[in-house]
Amino acid sequence: MKRLLQKNQKTQKTQKTQKTQVALLLLIFPIIIVAKIFQFTALNSNAFGIINRLLGWLPSDYVPSDNSYSFPLRIYRIVDFLPFKTALEWGIFWAIIMNAVFFFILLKIKKKYTLREYLFIYASMFILDVFVFNINKDLIQCILVLIPFAIFRTRIKNRYKIFIAASLMGVESVVFRPYYIIFSASIIVSYLVLEKRISNSNKKTVVKYLLLSVAIMLAAMYLAQYVSRSGYNALITRRNTLAEDLDSATVITNVFSGDSFFAFALNYVINAARMMFPLELLFMGVKYIPFVIYQLFLTLSIIGSIKNKLKHSNLVFIAFILGYWIMLVASESDFGTLIRHQAILLPFYLVMFTSDRSNRERAAQQNEESDNVKE
């Protein structure tokens, strides 16, 4: 009788938990609606610059020389037969498509999320719907990033997954954004470093290999000048050029001026720390506090995942995140762009979070079983 009562209580608790999970998951949809309303009522005209540019080119035969514009434009012309003309119409269309895709991914990653994970999902979906799920360049970047995610969810060997992902990013550097070549190389370097972390848990060894990976990436960036001088110059001067042209309150300005590689390397290290811990935004007003919290959450989560006992199942996802981060430090022009480009990796972060949680729960269960045996 007592056992039957406990079983009924457990069943009721499970049903209550399931209802709570469904309610928390469905809360995403009103957040999406609020995000779209916010985008088209609260954002200034600067936020629609790229959108309006692409909309203006869409009906014509014009092809920009800049691949970061011409590649998305070719993609959007494939669906230009649809009866959408304005930024609002295209924004709603892409929001429906991409939110459906992300909702499906959320269901596939985990049936049950913690409150912390839900808050991260809500914040990320809000950012994506305001800034990414529109007719712009970031939407194409988001779609391209989901291809490696789908590959990572298959059962092929990790090294094949990394090779395919790095190759895809290499191709994208040719047809879309040139600095993706950094991403391509960084994925491989990050994977090798993390693989070493699994085989050797000595913290000094891990730190040594992390520092070595940074040195390798900087060396690769330096050697790029002998492969493509124009590409190298574009990389070295990218932040200074963007800072001059960008109309943003959160521009990431280099500390050291000059176009030498030495100045670039110093600025790279300093900017990496500034981006990981963007406390300077706190001095710009209270409206930036959510962005600071979001970034600190991601930074501390990545550090925690690397410090914890890594598993081969989530290794490729963390390597992809680190490779992406290495690229962002070299390429991002302002903190706002940094945040929205990181939100694109929502599925990767969720796999990292849920994998870490599963490992902790499994370890706690094993400890509990061990204590019961001793008793």
Explain what the structure shows.
The longest helix has 29 residues, at 346-374. This protein has helices spanning 2-26, 28-42, 49-57, 67-78, 87-109, 115-132, 137-152, 158-175, 180-199, 203-223, 229-245, 261-276, 289-307, 312-331, 335-343, 346-374. It has two domains: 1-155, no CATH class; 156-364, no CATH class. It is globular and about 50 Å long. The protein is mostly helical and 375 residues long. The model has no long low-confidence stretch (mean pLDDT 84).
Could you list some keywords that capture this structure?
single chain, 375 residues, mainly alpha, 16 helices
Briefly characterize the structure:
The protein has 375 residues and is an all-alpha fold.
Present the secondary structure layout.
Blueprint: H1 2-26, H2 28-42, H3 49-57, H4 67-78, H5 87-109, H6 115-132, H7 137-152, H8 158-175, H9 180-199, H10 203-223, H11 229-245, H12 261-276, H13 289-307, H14 312-331, H15 335-343, H16 346-374
Query: How many distinct beta strands?
Result: 0
Largest sheet: none
What percentage of residues falls in helices of 4 or more residues?
A: over 70%
Radius of gyration: 22 Å
Q: How are helices and strands ordered from N to C?
A: HHHHHHHHHHHHHHHH
Can you tell me the residue ranges where pLDDT is under 50 for at least 5 consecutive residues?
Answer: none
Globular, elongated, flat, extended or rod-shaped: what is the shape? globular
Structural class: mainly alpha
